[in-house]
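Reopening this one. Same input as before:
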Amino acid sequence: MAKDKTPVTPAILFMKKNGIKFTLRPYRYEEHGGTGVAARELGVDEHIVIKTLVMEDDGGKPLIVLMHGDKMVSTKSLARMIGVKSVSPCDPQVAEKHSGYRVGGTSPFGTKHVLRIFMEEGIAALPRILINAGSRGLLAEIEPAELIRTLRPVSVRVAK
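Same output, byte for byte:
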């Protein structure tokens, strides 16, 4: 009997446990390459490659923002929307402590701690997305409805 070659990450285990239909899309990871490299390597529009960004509010409460790969987060708009003074990206070590993932391989699925999740509203309208599967150089192709069903992110409009 052939052994299953599917990598095992907390994100993949979460997706399997929750019945998410996904296709793993490995690519050659480049340090600091971001979604641009993933899109180039996989031959897709960077807009459908979704970034998982670990941030924190002015009180130090961590949160995740899901954003189109070709967009940036307006932290001022996000802070206003969630009723805090400010939001800023976490230092990599802090982000890794909150999520349980190495920066560059952060997935919103199967995080070490339960984090508030905010999703740019345009993501829901896409027919499919590519999102990190919990390891550098490994994305999962899924329908946004599956992400919404399992994570119940708060929809926001904070892209710039």
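So the earlier flakiness isn't reproducible anymore. For the record, Strands lie at 23-26, 49-57, 62-68, 87-89, 116-120, 129-135, 138-142, 154-156.
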